[in-house]
Structures are given as structure tokens and as C-alpha cells.
Amino acid sequence: MSLTGQSTAQLRQAFAEGQATAAEIATAFLDQIARCDETVSALLHHDREAALARAAEVDRRREAGETLGPLAGVPVILKDNICMRGVPTTCASRMLENFVPPYDAHVVERLQAADAVVIGRANLDEFAMGSSCENSAFGPTRNPWNPECSPGGSSGGSAAAVAARMAPLAVGSDTGGSIRQPAAFCGVVGMKPTYGRVSRYGLVAFASSLDQIGPFSTDVHGSALLLEALAGHDPRDTTSVDQPVPSYTEKLDRPLEGLRVGIVKEHFGEGLDEEVNAAVHAAIDVYRSLGAEVKEVSLPHSKYSVAAYYIIAPSEASSNLARYDGVHYGHRAESFENMVDMYETSRGEAFGEEVKRRIMLGTYALSSGYYDAYYLKALKVRRLIREDFDKAFAEVDIIAGPATPTTAFRIGEMVDDPLAMYLNDIYTIGANLAGIPGLSLPCGQSSAGLPIGLQLLAAPFEEERLLRAARMYEAQTDWHGGCPDLEALAGSAGQ
Amino acid sequence: MNVTPIVGLEVHVQLLTQSKLFCGCVNRFNPDEPNTQTCPVCLGMPGSLPVMNREAFRLAVTTATALNCEIARFTKWDRKQYYYPDLPKGYQISQYDLPFSHDGWMDVKVEDEDPVRVRILRVHLEEDAGKNIHDESGRGADSQVDLNRAGTPLLEIVSQPDIRTAAQARVYLEELHLLLTYLGVSDCNMQEGSLRCDANVNLHIEQNGEKIATPIVEVKNLNSFRGVEAAIEYEIGRQQREFEKTGRKLGDPGVEKETRGWNADRGVSFAQRGKEEASDYRYFPDPDLVPIVVTEEELEEIRSAQCELPAARRDRFQKELGLSEYDASVIINQGAEFAGYFETVASTCGDAKQAANWVSQDVLRELNERKVGIDEFPLPADVLGTLLQRIVAGEITVKSGRELFAVLLEEADGGTVPAVDRIDPLIDEKGLRVVKDTGALDAAIDSALADSPKAVEDFRAGKQQAIGPVIGKVMKQLKGADAKAVRERIIERLSE
Fold first, then answer.
1. A319 and B284 in contact by Cβ < 8 A?
2. What distance in Å separates the CA atoms of residue A135 and residue B205, rounded to the nearest whole number?
3. Domains in chain A, ordered, with CATH?
4. CB–CB of A200 and B50 under 8 A?
5. Distance between CA B145 and CA A187 in Å, rounded?
6. What is the mean pLDDT of chain B?
7. Domain B438-495: which CATH class?
8. How many CB atoms lie within 10 A of CB A32?
9. Among B49, B85, B145, whose Cβ lies nearest the Cβ of A236?
10. pLDDT, tens digit (0-9, with 9 covering 90-100), for A164-212
């Protein structure tokens, strides 16, 4: 089998046993990028030479007999909102088109310590605001399963890159479903850890109280491995939690005894696609067949989650994005009348429609006279949602349900209907509001040949249980082995 | 018409920490090398995150405790949002509805008036902004931004409107300045902007049995004690004239809080277009920073580490050492080191009043002439204390003491470190020891009396002052003699 067809575990083994060098592995994936990315547009930029130099360095160190990190020689793609010293970090925005951070994000330091090889930077919705990658200032990413379709978003580039085997692993960020929804659309595994599990230092903030960095991979083991490398306390992020990181891979293959699986009745209501519904129910049956107890649980306030989210996230975003004012870095308008005009023109020129929409929403919600009715109310709802989850997890170990109401929609289908687009996150947002970990893994395919994602949720810091539950299902099914027609992707290039 | 000025002060104090409030950059006034004390955090670069400096918080709590404030057990950070080039994140991390401390007080005593208790509404901690530097040549060059100051810890101390006169406002600021320097939480350098003051001023006017409040005016950037007093004095007059002219009062439609600047050179306040007028700061809790929980142990640690505060020390100097209010204030107001110098002198010589006289007059005069602080004064406190002890013991006269004080300083300036064991040899070298040998004294008196028959006659006729020249003659002969003792002995001899 070609190197790009292998799982992370297989690549590690090949490297460890000397069957492949890091340079060969990197070359294989860089070649795959060269073949497919003209069609998929998963990456915003990548530096082939730098990646190969890094791989050669890993090889040199292996030859020198040095002990290498757990991701030695494994190629990883990073969402382009994660800062890396000396490498452009654009957030898919004109605002930061020429921004090169002078520092590494905590996760970048972790990846380097693990001896991974970063080979590219993935597309996203501008500043991670969106569910389709269509809000990228540099053009949309296409779904490898059907280039007419969206890969989801905002980490659509990361998900599409893994699906098209441009890397076995990718890093994304999830504020309302931005890892899990594209993972579902692209038929890969994607996980949002507990809020505070991974340091946000160096992640360009969208909504600080919701943002969390997480892994993408072709299988559950890959995500467990990558999360192990990324997670852990960082004193530079006061919201990062000082709690030991267990080995997520060690007991991954050991099934959970007496697993209690919760089904949320509110997740199977109006708007859920019939094929998705059927696939998710079939997945739940797999758990039953494995001896799990399946129980119905209620999240009575989940119906308010989208509303609360679209107050809290834009409020924080309106504040977090205030720093892009054209004064110190980023885009500054060429001509302006005065200081206020400089701000308005620079921001007006460099932000896209959706970013502007959210800045306006957030500015409004935080305005004096509206604060109590919107922001404060949303925070109260958020607490109720968290309490709903606390109650549910007193009764069950994990919650299973659909990751998205539908399979991947067509590019352009929803650009004029932001509300419909917002509803795409209806099942994923709750985990961000409650700060709990969630994961999406492939559980089927629609009649149109598009992947379907199963979302699993667990209580805070129960990543290990979540991954083991996911692995239990994965071990019984073949959905994660599914791969889009890569030859067709390569073949359609240049057409 | 009865007019009562109502004044509240907002004071910003820069805390004396090693590093900034939310990053590790050095906290130092350094306008000559702009943008050299910066990092991704205080530059507000994407992806950077703030981490609270615990030392800054400790200094803040120390200050609020000294201001008799309640310390909140739970406090949090809020974002105050506005656009300005010296504010790189587009918001300032500050504290809004849950400041770390509230409801304190400080007593303010203007000389010859009863003390006034000024309540403190709140004290909160926030980050300072950078500095915009505009081209003042008139050639319209670009403005520049220096972010060395951005993110440095700033304490905001807000008083209740309990101040009634400009002098009280000045003394409030002086007392606060003194307290902060005693605590060592700030260098309070007003030229460098470490202590900045805004005053909220309006008038309560009683006219024909009706009580009227005039619109509130905030006078910004009063950066000297004199400036605060002068600006408030000016505002009181201006607002009264304004009221007499327009009759505008607080709460009238269209009447808003006005922001004014202060021109110290011309001694006038002037209308300013305040950023406040149009803005809504859209405060909300900073999601990047976890709230702070303050434990009883932490508070106890701060309380027990607290030094004697200036007000308490001033009180003790009066009650225990018997100093006058004036002397106590002069000494305390010079700062903690000066007061410490005084205490050493007083305990060495055993006479606090004598020590107070010398320290507040002779020493202070020297300091002023030399333009140095007490830490650079060449005469150690124990040396001065020993010198004064000789006066107290009657071994030398006060006049001799002054002479020796000058000699010791001269020697110090010449490079000799003044030591306690230099005092007695010096007294003898100069022949200044008080003559206690009555034989020698009587001989000198007899000889002087013999030389002055007219004076003796006049004295016996009842002219007390007639013996003045006799005393002078004796003193000339006996350098170390005490004039008072000489006088008494002459009277004794003449009465025999």
C-alpha cells in the first residue's frame, strides 16, 4: 500500500522499523498535495522545502540514535489560524494576509516536541466563522467526496486534507462544531476536547470561551495519538486546566464494560435528514449489540443553544477582532481621511461579509441597554445547558447522536441564508457551550455517496472514555476505511 | 446664595512591579527607546493571551487594605472597549462591576482645620495604555505610538464626592501620595505620570430656599498637587459664573457630564472633546482570564506584612513623643525614610522635641540646599542623635551644637564618614564643652564684674538687662559656657 493510504499507526511503525524515512513519508504526502489540492483547495499555503528539511532533520536525529517523539516523522496539517513562528498565519482573511507571527502556538511547540512534520496550512472560514469554508477570503475548499459539495467548516481545509490523504493528521479548532461538522462531512474522525484541555495560546481567537483546538485523523487511534501530543497545561493560557493527561492510546482497544449510551430525544427532531437518522440509529444498534445499555436522556434547554451561541460567540468575536485596526499589523487602507476613517476603511476593506455580520451582532448584544437582555441572558441559558449535560452524564457515560442534520450541502447552496447555515451546528454547539468533549466519526454514507457522522459526547475530561467508546464502534464497522476517489480528484485537476 | 463645592477625585497610580500586568515585559519608564519593552501579549498580537501578574495584585490589595477598603473575595476582569492607537487590543483589561476592593476611607486634614473623612468608593486594577506621540512641529508628520507603557499595572482609586474645598483635594492627593510611597507600591513620580488625577467637580447652590446642583465637570490630567488645587479653585469660580449666567443645572435636558482639560500655564480649564461623550465601552467579562478568588490566608498575610501607615505614625509622634501637630506633619510628610531618621535621632538623644527641631529645621534646610533626599544625607542619624544627646545632657550648648553640626558636615563633604566617636574629641578640639568648674566660672565672673562697675550699679538699681554686657564678657572668656548658667550665676553673685 502507498504511504498516503496508511493510518498514523502504520506510518509510525514503518518509520520506527526503518521501512520508510520521514523524508519519504513527507514526500509522499507532499506529492499527494500536489496531485489533489488543485481540485480540493484544502491548503492555503505550504512550504515543501521547509517540510522536507524538517523531515530530513528527524531522519538525521534517528540515525544519530536519538530518542524521538511519539509523532516522529508523521506529517500534520495545521488550520491557518494557529500561529507558527515565521510562517504566514492568515485566518483566511485579507486582514492577516501578510501576517507572520514571531511566536509559536503552544500546540506547535507540542508538535515539534513530538517530532511531527508540519507540511501545510489548511483553509478555513475567515477567522473560523462559518460552517462551509465558503467564507474564506481565498476561495472555498471542496469536499473530496464530491467537489461540488462543501467540506463543512470552519476547519473544512483540515478535514478535506485528511480525507484526501494529504496528511494522516490535521489540527483544527472548534468553537461551535468547527471540527466535528467538517469531520462528518468529509468522513474522517474529528474531536473537540474539553474546554481547557488544550492550550489556546497561539490560536487566533474567535470566541475565547468556546474555542478549543483538536485533532483530525483517518481513524480513532490517530486522534487519540494526536490529542495525547497536544493536550496539557500551559501557564500562558489561564483557561488551560492543570490536570494530568492520561495516555489515550494505551487502553484504546479495550472495550468499555457496561457502557451506558444516552440518546437525546431533542436530537432526533425536525430537520434531521432521513438517511442520517437511519445511519445514526444503526450505529446505536451496534452499541446495543456490544452489550451497551442505551437510554433516552433529555437536554431540555438544547433548543436554545443556537440562540445562546449566536449571542455569546459574536459578542466575544466583536471584542477579539477589535485589535485588527490597521495600526500595528495587518491590513491598513491605502488612503483615509483621519484616524476614525483609517479604522473604518481598513476594517471595511479587509473583513468579509460573515465576519462583519458577527462583529455587528456582537457589538449590538454588548451595547449598553441591550447587555442584560442579550449577553447576560445568553450566559444564563449557557449555564442551564451545562446543567442539562451534568444531569444527563449522571445517568449515561456517553451521548450518541447525529453530528449534523444533513450530509454535506452543495457549495453556494446556503450562502444567502445565514440562518440555515447557523442551524447546521445545532447538534454540535451544545458541547462548546457546556465545555464538554465531543467527537465525530464516520458511521455511514448517503445514497449520494456522502459520508455521515456519528457524534459522541462525554462529561468534562472524559476524553479517554470518549475515544474508547468511539473505537468500540469503529472496530465493528468499516466506515472509517472509506476513502474518496483520489484518482478522480487528481484527474480533474486542471480541467 | 450659599455655594458648596462637591468634589470627587479619580487617581491613577502606576504600580512598582518588575513586570507588566499580563505579560513578562519589564515595567519601566523608558520613553527614549520606544517599543523595546513589548511582546506579543502587550502588542495585542493574534493568538496571544494574558496571564495575571500576582505581584501586581498583591500590591493592589496592600494599597486597598491601607485605604481601609473591603477586599472582595471574588473578583474578575472586564474588557473596556474603545478604539485608540495606543490601545493595541481595542480594549483595556480593567474591572467593571466587581472591583477587587470597595468602600474604604482616608482622613484628610488641612492645616488649622478639623480632619475630614473622604470615603473611597472603589479601588480597581487595570492595564495602562501606550502613548501616542504627535508631531508638534506643525508640519503634519505622522503620529507615532510607543507601547512600552502598554499593559503596565495601573491602580484606579475613586473617591466619593466628599471633598469640599480645593485645599482638601490637594491634601487628599498629598496624603495618598505619601501613603503609596510609604507602602512602596509606587514611585508616584508625577512628572513621569506614575500618579495622575482627574477631578469631578460641581456645586450645590442654595438660593431662595431652593437647592440646586450644577452640571458635573470632569477636569482631566491634573498632574501636580498645585495643579489639583488651582484647577478646582478655578472650576468653582467658573461654574458659579456659568450658573449665574445660564442657570443650567444638573438633570436639565441636554446637560451632560463635561470633560475639561487644565492649562497650568494660563491657570484656566478648557472644554475638551471627551472620548466619553459618544462612547459606550461595552464592558463584558474577559473570557481569556479566570476570575480571582482571594483567600482569608492571603489577606491575613498582607495585613500582617503592613508597615505603620503615615496617619498612624503621625498620631503616634504626637501622642507618644509629644510632638506638635505641625512638627509631626513636617516629619511624616517627608516620607518613611525621613521619619525613620527622625526616630533614630530622637531615641539616641532621648529628647523627641529637640530631635524634631533639628530634623525639621537644620536637616531639612541642608537637604533643600543640597537638593538630596535623606538617603543621601551625609550625617548618619546616630551621629546627629549623639550630638544632640550632648546638648540634652547639658554638655554643650545648642549654639555649639549648630557649630559642630556644620563642622561634621564639612568633614563629611571632605570625605570623612562622620562617626559617633568623633563627637567628643571634636567638642574638646573646639573647646566647646560647657564649663562646669564653678571656680573658673566664678573667677571669670568676678573679673568681668570688676571691669563693669556701672553695670553692677544699674543692675542693683533694678535694670535687669544691664548685666547683658557682663554675660558677654564671661562668655568670651569661657567658650563652652552656657549663657543661661552664666546669667544665673551672675545674679547669684550680685545677690550675695
1. yes
2. 61
3. 3-257+457-492 (3.90.1300.10)
4. no
5. 49
6. 92
7. mainly alpha
8. 24
9. B49
10. 999 999 999 999 999 999 999 999 999 999 999 999 999 999 999 999 9
